[in-house]
Amino acid sequence: MSRPTILRVPPLSPQLHDAVGEQYDAVDLADLAEHAEDVVGIVCSNSGRVDGDLIAALPRLGVIANHGVGYDNIDVPAALERGIAVSNTPEVLDDAVAETAVALLLAVRRQVVPADRFVRAGRWLEEAFPLTGQVAGSRVGILGLGRIGRAVATRLEALGCTVSYHNRHRLPDVPYAYAASAAELAAGVDSLVVVVPGGAGTAALVDREVLDALGPDGVLVNVARGSVVDEPALVAALADGRLGGAGLDVYAEEPQVPAELIAMDTVVLLPHVASGTHPTRAAMRALTLDNLASWLADGTLRTPIPEMTTTGKDS
Ligand code: NDP
After folding, report:
1. How far is the CA of 197 from the centre of ligand 1 (A)?
2. What residue stretches are annotated with the D-isomer specific 2-hydroxyacid dehydrogenase catalytic domain (predicted)?
3. pLDDT (tens digit per residue) in 55-102
4. Where do the domains of the chain lie, and which CATH numbers do they carry?
5. Predicted confidence (pLDDT) at residue 312 exceeds the cutoff of 70
6. Which residues contact 183 (CB under 8 A, 6 or more apart)?
7. Which of 75, 90, 254, 295 could form a disulfide with 63 if both were Cys (CB 3.0 to 4.6 A apart)?
8. Ligand 1 site, residue 148, Cβ cutoff 6 A
9. Cα(5) to centroid of ligand 1, in Å?
10. Which atom of ligand 1 is nearest to the CA of 197?
11. Which of helix, strand or coil describes residue 3?
């Protein structure tokens, strides 16, 4: 019996790429012209674009299994219009991403990276390292108190921070103060952690007004998407000293990072690795493959994206 044909949209980890190849008749973008009529499923990661043209080129496409909780890489309206099922990988990455957000906040406030450079350069032999800020006792705002945001909040509470948040909807079940806007949240905290989804609804949500509200002693941590922060405004605020520092995992044009940021000692820069741990990536991979297998078996998904459950097209 012939196996289902699945399109692998790069970049995929070698493990996921190979697993799809072992379980299915796998097709890569380079071979698409020959096999477009056969493809019933796509496996992609959230760095691989699945746009309307690609979806339109695959007449039998029924499922898109995304390796990642964020799916702003997929033209979801185009998929749902055709009744194509879309899955993501929520929850299994919450701990790793929250850990990264906290690591960035600690690294920026305690100047971990400059202090490491100071020791390596032999400067400790001549002078003492300057005093730093601290996270304990500080006020931290979470922009996007969802699954990952809540995991960040509990870690910050354990560190002795006062947590507040802004979502579009106020939550009934959390002990944190609510701010009615991103700017209001930023104005009342020392540091802001951004963990909203990407896409059109949050583009440049963190703009000059929010950065100025955070202020010259403020620290911005972004583990969400580069699109959520107005990057030129961020660079300007840091360069002018209107913002104290930043810890960034994501950027507007990855893997390009603005040269101005690379030259600054007040920022810590990670290469989009917030979920990049061995156990988390194994769990994300397993959930991606489970979603695909489940849809192929009976038309259901383990973890459909929320738009599917709200439109009722969950098959
Ligand atoms: P959730 O959907 O659980 O949480 C998202 C939160 O953002 C919700 O509380 C939502 O509340 C809020 N939100 C959404 N839109 C807005 C808006 N316009 N203004 C204010 N708040 C908003 O998602 P997760 O916590 O699972 O993931 C969040 C994002 O983190 C992902 O979409 C992904 O982009 C990013 N991420 C990044 C990773 C990395 O490697 N750096 C790894 C994993 C995730 P409400 O609906 O009430 O507004």
Report:
1. 4
2. 22-304
3. 999 999 999 999 999 999 999 999 999 999 999 999 999 999 999 999
4. 5-90+278-298 (3.40.50.720), 94-269 (3.40.50.720)
5. no
6. 209, 210, 213
7. 295
8. yes
9. 32
10. 32
11. coil
